[in-house]
Specification:
about 40% helix; binds zinc ion; about 150 residues; three-stranded parallel beta sheet; alpha/beta; elongated; 2 domains; about 20% strand; Rossmann fold
Length: about 150
């Protein structure tokens, strides 16, 4: 029973989707992308679930990916963590968080990134860095300039 992201719902053959686990919030997302596909997916045997996203948010803030994840992404990550099932996703941030957690994941389109990375806030003025744990730009404690989210090198 793999956890499937919306790309899988959109692109996989229906028989491959059967038995998968998906978040309720994905149906709305899928409707926006393809209403026809949403109607089809609603008619097949998949498990619709919603779980608390708190642990997923903590896990995503550890790698600094939280600002890059949508509420739907967090729902999907939370489902994977709650069920312990393999997560199928092409989202590099979701893959990155899974890798950091040691959680099994696979790509939807058979492309998996091999790199582990960390996002950080970097000051545009003095280049000071800090862990990125929110979606917001922050102000540097050192010089008062804006800090932007960058990939840590
Ligand atoms: Zn600064």
């Amino acid at each position: 029973m793999p956890v499937l992201d919306t790309a899988a719902l959109l692109h996989w053959p229906v028989e491959r989707l059967c038995g998968g686990i998906v978040a309720h919030s994905q149906l709305e997302e899928l409707r926006k992308l393809s209403n026809q596909r949403a109607i089809l997916v609603e008619s097949i045997e998949i498990k619709w679930m919603t779980v608390d996203t708190k642990d997923a948010e903590i896990a995503a803030s550890e790698t600094g990916d939280l600002p890059r994840l949508s509420p739907v992404d967090l729902d999907i990550l939370a489902l994977a963590m709650a069920t312990g099932e393999t997560l199928f996703t092409d989202d590099y941030s979701l893959q990155n968080v899974c890798r950091n957690l040691g959680h099994l994941f696979e790509s939807v389109s058979n492309k998996v990134s091999n790199e582990q990375w960390i996002w950080e806030l970097r000051c545009i003025g003095c280049r000071a860095t800090r862990k990125a744990d929110s979606k917001n730009e922050e102000i540097c404690d050192v010089c008062g300039s804006v800090m932007k989210v960058k990939r840590a090198s």
